[in-house]
């Protein structure tokens, strides 16, 4: 049933493209660690509680994405594919803040090597751009890059000066940052300059060349548009485009 529903979505995508091949197409999936906090084992606990189940889950996710990407390549052979993995729960996993099934305790955090290796298993299925999205405070930037992420997707509203050093190092290495500056649900978008202020403050704190800003930052919604109305979704994407243009024209 799941394969059938996905195939129908891809058929609709092909129909909407009407024979054209977009330059870039992003496909998105929940990352292995966040998925492990959502999938339950037969005995009732989360997959995160069982190291063997977690390894199997990562391998299964990787295989499913490998087939999905192959299907997209067959349908859009001239299009560059971008894979985005959503890991909003990863900071909580690493800090052992995920509750057990009973709710009276929390699950033990994986060691750093295991956390990195499970991510690498999934990231490694795609030889193009792989962005990891983490909209939670204290995103583990260094771990994501070690696991092979080639782009970072972060919510500007939750970043603090404590994240500056790792973000600055990522930008210095040429890693693009997809920065969530537009709310994901219906909001007032009349003052776009005010919504650009956080990224300008960030750039000032990092002490980086302002000319690098439009080359390094892509303006995005903060956390997807699944909960937004269709009209707001169009307005939000238009706002992202306009804000990106403003960064290009006046990076200072």
List the helices and strands and how they pair.
Layout: H1 2-17, E1 24-30, H2 32-36, H3 51-75, E2 80-86, H4 90-94, H5 112-123, E3 129-134, H6 141-146, E4 151-155, H7 164-172, E5 177-182, H8 192-206, H9 213-216, E6 217-221, H10 230-249
Parallel strand pairs: 1-2, 2-3, 3-4, 4-5, 5-6
Helix pairs in contact: 3-5
List keywords for this structure.
alpha/beta; 252 residues; single chain; 46% helix; six-stranded parallel beta sheet; globular
Described by its quaternary structure, the protein is single chain
Largest sheet: 6 strands, parallel
Helix fraction, binned, reads 40-55%
Query: What is the CA-based Rg, rounded?
Result: 19 Å
Strand-and-helix sequence, N→C? HEHHEHHEHEHEHHEH
Topology, number of strands:
6
**What is the overall shape?**
globular
Brief write-up:
The chain is of the alpha/beta class. The protein has helices at 2-17, 32-36, 51-75, 90-94, 112-123, 141-146, 164-172, 192-206, 213-216, 230-249; strands at residues 24-30, 80-86, 129-134, 151-155, 177-182, 217-221.
């Amino acid at each position: 049933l799941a394969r059938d529903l996905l195939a129908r979505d891809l058929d609709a995508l092909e129909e909407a493209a009407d024979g054209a091949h977009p330059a870039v197409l992003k496909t998105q999936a929940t990352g292995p660690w966040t998925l492990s906090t959502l999938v339950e084992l037969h005995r009732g606990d989360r997959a995160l509680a069982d190291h063997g189940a977690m390894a199997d889950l990562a391998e299964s996710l990787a295989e499913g994405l490998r087939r999905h990407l192959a299907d997209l390549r067959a349908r859009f052979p001239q299009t560059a594919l971008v894979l985005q993995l959503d890991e909003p729960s990863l900071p909580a996993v690493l800090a052992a803040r995920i509750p057990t099934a009973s709710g009276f305790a929390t699950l033990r955090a994986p060691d750093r090597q295991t956390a990195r290796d499970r991510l690498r298993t999934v990231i490694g299925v795609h030889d193009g751009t792989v962005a990891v999205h983490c909209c939670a405070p204290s995103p583990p930037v260094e771990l994501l890059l070690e696991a092979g992420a080639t782009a970072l997707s972060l919510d500007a509203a939750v970043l603090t000066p404590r994240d500056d050093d790792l973000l600055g190092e990522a930008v210095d290495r040429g890693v693009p940052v997809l920065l969530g500056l537009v709310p994901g649900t219906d909001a007032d978008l009349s003052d776009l300059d005010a919504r650009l202020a956080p990224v300008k403050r960030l750039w000032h704190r990092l002490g980086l060349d302002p000319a690098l800003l439009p080359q390094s930052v892509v303006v995005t919604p903060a956390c997807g548009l699944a909960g937004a109305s269709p009209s707001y979704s169009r307005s939000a994407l238009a706002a992202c485009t306009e804000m990106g243009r403003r960064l290009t024209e006046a990076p200072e």
